[in-house]
Amino acid sequence: TIGQISVGCAIGWLDMRFNDLGWRDDCPALADWYAGFSARPSMVATEPKE
Fold first, then answer.
1. 20 to 30 Å CA-CA from 48: which of 10, 18, 26, 35?
2. Looking at residue 35, what DSSP letter applies?
3. What's the number of domains the chain is made of?
4. Domain limits at 21?
5. Residue 49 covered by a domain
């Protein structure tokens, strides 16, 4: 859904911009969701390189 895409993109941006936040330790369920979401072919194909 558009909501999942929005959350996934926001988390990806946070990882790129503020990599030292350490949110995965505090939110393991969200980290698991994001790992699966970011591995989708559509997300891999559109991932920014820098």
1. 26
2. H
3. 1
4. 2-43
5. no
Asked whether residue 32 is assigned to any structural domain, the reply reads yes
Q: How many CB atoms sit inside 10 A of residue 24's CB?
A: 14
User: How high is the pLDDT of residue 46?
Assistant: 85
4: which 2 tokens?
């999942």
Residue 21: what pLDDT?
86
The CA distance from 14 to 49, in Å, is 15
Given a cut of 50, the residues of the chain with pLDDT beneath it are none
The closest of 12, 17, 50 to 34, measured between CA atoms, is: 12
Q: Is residue 48 part of a domain?
A: no
Report the pLDDT value the prediction gives residue 16, as an integer from 0 to 100. 86
Phi, then psi, of 38 in degrees rounded to 5:
-70, -15
